[in-house]
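DM from R.C. (forwarded with permission)

"hey, sorry to bug you on a friday — could you get me a structure for this? deadline for the figure draft is monday and I only need the backbone to look sensible"
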Amino acid sequence: MNVIWLCSWYPNQVDKFRGDFIQRQAIAVSALLRVDVVHVVFVEENERTESKIVNENLTEHLYYRRNQNKLLNLRTLLSVHQIFFKSVSY
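My reply, with the result:
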């Protein structure tokens, strides 16, 4: 079984402690199952994507997107999740 963790809080370069408990839970679950964490961070600077393999069963996908108005932020969240689902084969 594979787990996709879509979280609104997760440690990132902007705030290293935001949602650190979620990261610890993902690490614990990855001892038994393959886990992909998807998190979108809204920033003022340039957009970028980071994927980091933490261990053989845990991969973190962080998407840094420009901060816009709340309606466009929701649209950005949905489009990032679609991009992720197209790139990962389960």
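R.C.: lifesaver. The chain has a mean pLDDT of 86.
me: no worries. The longest strand covers residues 34-43.
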